[in-house]
Amino acid sequence: MRYTGLIENYRDRLPVDENTKLISLGEGNTPLIRLENIPATLGKDVDIYIKYEGLNPTGSFKDRGMTMAVTKAVEAGSKAIICASTGNTSAAAAAYAARAGIKAFVLIPEGKIALGKLAQAMIHGAVIIQIKGNFDDGMRLVKEVADHAPVAIVNSINPYRLQGQKTAAFEIIEELGNAPDYHCLPVGNAGNISAHWMGYKEYFDDSKATNKPKMVGYQAAGAAPFVKGAMVDNPETIATAIRIGHPQSWGLAHKVQSESNGWFDSLTDTEILAAQKLLTEQEGIFCEPASATSLAGAMRDIQTGKIPEGSKVVCTLTGHGLKDPDTAISQCASEMININPVMSEVRDAILNNM
Ligand SMILES: *Cc1c(COP(=O)(O)O)cnc(C)c1O
Q1: Residue with the nearest Cα to atom 2 of ligand 1?
Q2: Residue from 184, 192, 194, 316 whose mutation best tests the ligand 1 pocket (most atoms within 8 A of CB)
Q3: Would you say residue 184 has pLDDT above 80?
Q4: Coil, helix or strand for 80?
Q5: What average pLDDT score do residues 95-99 get?
Q6: Can you give the pLDDT at residue 126?
Q7: Which of 78, 270, 301, 334 has the CA that lies 20 to 30 A from 209?
Q8: Closest C-alpha among 244, 184, 203 to residue 220
Q9: Is 318 a pocket residue for ligand 1 (Cβ < 6 Å)?
Q10: Which DSSP string corresponds to 219-239?
Q11: Which of 110, 113, 72, 73 is nearest to 90 (CA)?
Q12: Is 109 helix (H, G, I), strand (E, B) or coil?
């Protein structure tokens, strides 16, 4: 049967009925890839699976939430949606608004959005409002303006977003036959980790799984309010998708941590970029910097034994590497070989680098 998106696939578990017009781009159903080389380099006997959310239609997991949020906005008669974004939410909002024939307004932090994401929001025809401020400023403004203009908020404070995003947990349980022991995610606003926990609990309660994972949230060291236990006013990290100091799902995420016996931790930008590069070089999987935070954290916790041998671990790779070409190239630029257009120089380049 033709796969036509996650709402159709999980219709009975989502707040839609037979009259709801679905706004879908075929999102969800992303690959769960078992890592073959990295576990050996760690010298530990663990199963690590990557949930490759970068293969959603606009290149991030935000599509799972956006298909629901835009479907419900259209059902309610909205002609326009609005979001604050570090990039991927605006890309998804722009695409799903185009699909629905409605308008998208996106507030982005000036100069702090990865090039691919900006290109997406622009080419889909969103109205882009750059603010002299960060994501947290944008979020505050979006909440305020929604009372003064006819726009539906499609940030993760919109409950339909989390409903859509919980389906990633369903897919993982269906593929593994049960929930993993640990599920590691990068955390910004903490909507996604909360949505996954909802999904795991729902399948557990309906006896579709006999276990629930410990949920582990990793942040960038310069933007780690959950690790600090307090909001951060000037978050900084190269992982722009999680450059958030005032998370919107603060309470939900703490509940996830205590209910699942999980934890929060942070990684430096250097550790994050090293994990991104390791994954591309050792496994052939390209994710954006923020996404690599999940693997960077999992690797550290496996190495220290906090995640014990014999565990089954799922790491969500939230967004595709092509979202942020600048960061990828700047990591590797010195490795390029420059030659004259003659065969002997090509040959030498090959023989010197075998
Ligand atoms: C949005 C996003 C995150 C953070 O997700 P939250 O639900 O805000 O915690 C992480 N990585 C990428 C690539 C994202 O786009």
Answers
A1: 241
A2: 192
A3: yes
A4: strand
A5: 98
A6: 97
A7: 301
A8: 244
A9: yes
A10: EETTB-HHHHTS--SS---S-
A11: 113
A12: strand
Torsion of CA 6, 7, 13, 18, to 10 degrees: -150
Question: For the purposes of burial, counting CB atoms within 10 Å of the CB of 23, is it exposed (0-12), middle (13-18) or buried (19 or more)?
Answer: buried
Is pLDDT of 333 > 90? no
Is residue 187 in contact with ligand 1, taking CB distance under 6 Å?
Answer: yes
Amino acid sitting at position 294:
S
Interval 182-186 mean pLDDT: 98
62 CB within 6 A, ligand 1 = yes
Report the binding-site residues for pyridoxal 5'-phosphate: 88, 188-192, 318
**Does ligand 1 have an atom closer than 6 angstroms to the CB of 291?**
yes
Give the per-residue pLDDT at 57: 98
* Average pLDDT of the chain to the nearest whole number: 97
The burial class, CB within 10 Å (0-12 / 13-18 / 19+), for 55 is: middle
Half-sphere exposure of 287 (CA within 13 A, CB side): 34
Domains belonging to the chain, first-starting first, are 6-59+159-324 (3.40.50.1100), 62-153 (3.40.50.1100)
Task: Indicate the top mutation candidate among 318, 320, 327 to test ligand 1's pocket, ranked by most ligand atoms within 8 A of CB.
Answer: 318
Distance CA 331, CA 93 (A): 30
Is residue 326 within 8 A of residue 87, CB to CB? The reply is no
pLDDT the model gives residue 1: 87
Ligand 1 atom nearest residue 217's Cα: 9
Amino acid identity of residue 317, one-letter, is L
Predicted pLDDT of residue 332: 86
What is the value of pTM for the model shown?
0.97
- CA 213 / ligand 1 centre spacing (Å): 20
Backbone angles phi, psi at 130, to 5 degrees: -85, 130
